[in-house]
Amino acid sequence: MWRPAKGYDNQEGFGIVDAAAALAKAGQLAGHRPAATSVPLAFRFGGGPSAVPPAPVRSRGSGQLILSALLALASLVLIGAAGTRLALLRRRPR
Fold first, then answer.
1. Taking CA atoms, which of 10, 64, 85, 88 is between 20 and 30 Å from 54?
2. Number of structural domains, the chain?
3. Are residues 74 and 93 in the same domain?
4. Are the beta carbons of 48 and 41 closer than 8 angstroms?
5. Could you tell me which of 21, 16, 10, 20 has the C-alpha nearest to residue 53?
6. Are residues 34 and 16 in the same domain?
């Protein structure tokens, strides 16, 4: 597994798992010996590590958090205004 130097990276998250190494280690822990294969790495599923492009992870800025907070605040204001108007309409004599 590859891990960023600071522990978390906006581009990589907490790291990238090497699936082949994880399966090999699981096989060792289970006492299983992998069968020898004559298939080149390039023809295996996914084309091997060199064929895997970097994960398309967007930068997680604070913009979405601020937008969500503003939308929540606007919703609360609208709910409060609607509740106040409803309470005033119910108080009026008919």
1. 64
2. 2
3. yes
4. yes
5. 16
6. yes
